[in-house]
Write a structure and sequence with these properties.
Elements (H helix, E strand, L loop, with lengths): L3 E4 L3 H12 L4 E4 L13 E2 L1 H10 L2 H6 L3 E2 L2 E4 L11 E3 L11 E2 L2 H14 L3 E3 L3 E6 L5 E6 L2 E5 L3 E4 L6 H5 L4 E15 L8 E7 L2 E9 L2 E8 L12 H7 L11 H4 L2 E2 L4 E10 L4 E2 L2 E3 L14 H18 L9 H25 L4 H16 L24 H10 L2
Parallel strand pairs: 1-2, 1-12, 2-8, 5-14, 12-20
Antiparallel strand pairs: 3-7, 4-7, 5-6, 9-10, 10-11, 13-16, 13-17, 13-18, 14-15, 15-16, 19-20
Pfam families: FAD_binding_3
Keywords: NAD, Oxidoreductase
Protein name: FAD-binding domain-containing protein
């Protein structure tokens, strides 16, 4: 009998398949792609996410899949003068972990799926028309080239990402909000860019991010106003996307980036935050990763959350024969707490870095002065490095946010 069917072979689903199959459970992993390929997904794992990968037993997949340690963070911004630019050491936030990791998402997923198969899981690629029916005896149906299939496992994990395919089928609803749009693309030929330095900043009407992946490759991201959502679509979109990095705040006006060579598709999307309006589960079904709710992508913690979800749910499944909804109360409670903190922090970062015009520039400038004068004002930035529960509580109070923005009014 199949113990667990996992719908979605991304970071959350594939890592869960590894953990559960290694723990002796009979696992089927369903993935809609026929082969793993670059879909422009998150490719940055915070140190606390790396710790979760270690606990799940999938850390080696990141290294073998091209994982690259980032050691410094640079902020180049129109609100930052040249003499204020400094490198932030990112390697000492969690002992024994080092800096965050940048990696090719699809390559790591492929290796995780192979590891799960090596532990006894069954991987089904190109699985389409997947339906999930919750209940004491859940049912999963799907189609492949061989025809229709049905599985009746003890448990289903929904890990289909922001599309929330399983969540919608079991009646989980989300409260959605959108602050801006984002876009991303892989490039190569960034040989003059410091290989272990990630960068972000805002100028004009774009907020940019550069995440090196080693050997001249990097994932580029832009965040921009919703009214510009068509700017990088259509013919010439790739060229316009690269040209957006021609910024006065970047060294040599961003020449290292603007002359890079596209090495993957360009994708743009609404940067949506989704908070579940109830527990992200039903009888016989539990949601993990972005499918269970997510914060604005500007925060960069989506994959770390996916790893935490996977590890927490797997520990429950492997630790007891009680797989009732009540058994997952600790997961639901911790995740609600975590998502609340991440959403709060993402809102602050969006207001500081993804709003544009003279007022926004002055807001960032004054916020930097406040943070330089009072280190406690930088507390929200810790969310990129350490787990939400390890960030001081005052950083998530309305009083803190009001003071931060009042000081910058």
């Amino acid at each position: 009998m199949t113990d667990v069917v996992i719908v979605g072979g991304g970071i959350a689903g594939a890592s869960a398949a590894c953990k559960l199959s290694a723990g002796g459970l009979d696992v089927v992993l369903l993935e809609k792609q026929d082969v793993y390929h670059d879909l422009v997904r998150g490719e940055w794992l915070a140190p606390w996410g790396i710790r979760e990968a270690q606990r799940l037993g999938v850390y080696d997949c990141f290294g073998a899949g091209g994982g690259w340690e980032i050691r410094e963070w640079m902020t180049w911004d129109e609100a930052v003068s040249d003499d204020e630019v400094e490198a932030v050491d990112m390697t000492s936030f969690i002992p024994g972990v080092g800096g965050p990791m940048s990696f090719p998402h699809h390559a790591v997923c492929e290796l995780m799926a192979a590891q799960a198969v090596g532990s006894g899981a069954r991987l089904v690629m190109d699985a389409s028309r997947i339906t999930v029916t919750a209940g004491a005896e859940p049912v999963v149906t799907y189609r492949t080239a061989e025809g229709e299939h049905e599985i009746r496992p003890r448990m289903v994990l929904g890990a289909t990402g922001r599309g929330c395919t399983v969540g919608r089928q079991i009646g989980v609803t989300m409260r959605n909000s959108m602050h801006h749009w984002g876009g991303g693309m892989m490039v190569e030929g960034l040989d003059s860019w410091p290989a272990d330095v990630q960068a972000m900043g805002t100028e004009g009407d774009v907020m940019f991010m550069v995440f090196p992946q080693g050997y001249g490759r990097a994932r580029l991201y832009l965040n921009f106003p919703a009214e510009n959502k068509l700017r990088y679509r259509g013919e010439g979109g790739v060229e316009r996307f690269l040209a957006a990095f021609e910024l006065d705040c970047l060294p040599d006006r961003g020449k290292a980036v603007t002359e890079a060579i596209p090495a993957g598709p360009l994708s743009v999307w609404p940067s949506v935050s989704s908070v579940p309006e109830g527990p992200p589960l039903a009888e016989g079904v539990v949601l993990i990763g972005d499918e269970a709710g997510n914060a604005d992508t500007v925060l960069g913690t989506g994959l770390s959350c996916a790893m935490r979800d996977s590890r927490t749910v797997c520990d429950i499944l492997l630790g007891s024969d009680d797989w009732s909804p009540a058994a997952f109360d600790p997961y639901v409670e911790e995740r609600l707490f975590r998502l609340d903190r991440l959403a709060f922090g993402a809102d602050i970062i969006s207001r500081l870095h993804v709003e544009f015009g003279e007022v926004a520039v002055e807001r960032r400038r004054r916020a930097r002065r406040l943070m330089a004068k009072n280190f406690a004002a930088q507390v929200t930035g810790l969310l990129n490095m350490v787990a939400p529960e390890d960030v001081p509580e005052f950083g998530f109070s309305e009083f803190f946010a009001e003071r931060l923005f009042r000081e910058t009014a």
